[in-house]
Amino acid sequence: NIAWYSDPDVLLIRPPMTDGLARSWATMLALTGQSLMANDRLPDLPPSRVALLKRVFPATDVRALDLYRPENT
């Protein structure tokens, strides 16, 4: 469930932020259910922080809509 809607927050979890602080910040933002943006340079993140992002931004089953099929017009 969503507690409230607001403008998207930015999730920053890169070092030198401690692991505990990064986990707390990510948990707090994820629990709100609102829109989030990751603003870290992903290739530079340590594996533990990438795992944290994967928990906050789970992959969803999506597929592109074919706009040219008659039933979609």
Question: What is the overall pLDDT average?
Answer: 83
Number of helices: 2
| Strand runs, count | 2
How does the overall form come out from the CA principal axes?
extended
Count of all domains: 1
Structural class: alpha+beta
Report on the biggest sheet.
Answer: 2 strands, parallel
Assess the beta-strand content as a share of residues.
5-15%
Helix proportion range: 25-40%
Walk me through what this model shows.
The chain has 73 residues and is an alpha+beta fold. The chain has one domain (1-58). The chain is built from two helices and two strands; from the N terminus they run E-H-E-H. The protein has helices at residues 19-32, 47-56; strands at residues 9-11, 36-38. A two-stranded parallel ribbon has the order 1-2. Strand 1, helix 1 and strand 2 (36-38) form a beta-alpha-beta unit. Helix 1 (19-32) runs parallel beside helix 2 (47-56). The longest helix is centred in the middle third of the chain and has 14 residues, at 19-32. It is extended. The chain starts with 8 loop residues before the first strand and ends in a 17-residue tail after the last helix. The mean pLDDT is 83.
